[in-house]
Every structure is written in C-alpha cells, then in structure tokens.
Amino acid sequence: MLTHRQTFWLALAASIIPFSIHAQTNPEMIEQAVQPLPDDLKAGATVFKYDADSGDRIVLRQGSNQVECQPMNEDGFTRCGPTAEGPRTDMQAKLSAQGLSSDEVESALQKAESMGHIKASAFGALNYRLYNKDDRIQLLWVVSVPNATAAQLGYPTGSQRDNSLAGRGTPWMMLEGTSGAHLMIPINGTELSNNPI
User: Fold this and answer.
1) At residue 136, what are phi and psi to the nearest 5 degrees?
2) N or C: which end of the chain has fewer CB within 10 A?
3) Final residue of a domain: which of 120, 154, 179?
4) Structure letter (DSSP) for residue 129
C-alpha cells in the first residue's frame, strides 16, 4: 500500500512528465522540423502537423518556398518533402486517422492515384528524413524515380545500410522498375549524421 507521500510524488510525476514531452512551443517545433533540410531551404519551408484524431492539417508556419516539413513523430522521424506532394500526404494522414493499416493506406493511395484524385510523385522529387537514434540511418535524402531501373540511371542496388550506420554510406536504388522506385542517399559527416565527424 502506498503512503500519502508516495502517492503525492507519483501524481506529481504523472502530471509533469506528459507535459514536458508535449510542451514544445511552435518556434521549437518549427526549428526541429526543418533540421533535415539544406540551410538555404530552412527559412522558407512550411511547417505543419496533423491532428491525430481527424488527420486534419494544422499549419504551424506558412512558408514561401517549395518544401514543407513535419516535426518529429512518435516513431522518431522528422520528414520534409515537396509542397506539391501535400495532397498525397494529407490523404495518407486522413486514412491513417481512420485506423487503416499501412498496407490498406498504400492500396488506397495507389487507387486514388490511378483514378487521378492525387498525383504520382514527380520523377526526381526529393524527400528529406531525419531519425533521432543511431540504430537507423539518421540523415537520409530519398529521391523518387518511378519505374526507373538501376541500368537506366547507373545506380547500385546493394544496400548501404550498414555502411551508413558507420557514417560512410553511399547512394543506392530500392524497388527498381516499380512505381515506388527511389534512390536512398545517406548524408554523412554532419552533426545529425550517424557517427558524425
């Protein structure tokens, strides 16, 4: 049985800990959200988040350039990408808020794309990703190259994950020849990278 003193401290901890996790101000969230971007894109990037229940977009800062970013999510990822892909990410957020699995969301996005409701990712579209732990590639840029093959673009297909975790990763292609083909470009040697120099 807990004493009154133990109950007090447990109640205090329960009230403080969630507050400290979610108490970021908009300026702090904006600063964190644009970290994966090159310096010349940070000041003009739109920053937004999604309402967890509805999937509605909440704009934290309206930007003036071609990229938009979301603050770090519960899985530890911070993502930025072209504003042109906003309708796709908005639809994805709404579907996820409805409780659909990742496979169901992807299937619905493909169907919406085939019906012309959303656009496919543009060839060469660049997405920026930051992860907050060193068990994955921490700073990664991903270039969409729908339906391209390694032979067409001259890219290797062997994974560079292990080399990237060691801070010396080089680009490689994934899902070649499919609509989801993309180039993985680990960014080495920054304070945000794995094994920073």
Assistant:
1) -135, 175
2) N
3) 120
4) E
Q: In the block, which residue shows the tokens 């993309």? A: 182
Q: Which domain holds residue 109?
A: 25-120
Nearest in space to 153 (alpha carbons), one of 195, 184, 119: 184
* Residues 142 and 100 occupy one common structural domain: no
- Tokens representing 34 are 């644009």
Residues 162, 110: one domain? no
Q: Are 64 and 33 in contact (CB under 8 A)?
A: no
Cα–Cα separations (whole angstroms), residue 122 to 61, 85, 89, 130, 148: 25, 9, 14, 21, 12
| Cα-based distances in Å from 158 to 115, 128, 150 | 34, 21, 11
Judge whether 174 lies within some domain: yes
Greater confidence (17 vs 148) lies with 148
**Residue 143 shares a structural domain with residue 116:** no
Q: Is residue 84 part of a domain?
A: yes
Question: Which residues of 75-166 form beta strands (DSSP E)?
Answer: 77-82, 126-131, 139-144
pLDDT per residue over 145-173, tens digit each? Answer: 999 999 999 999 999 999 999 999 999 99
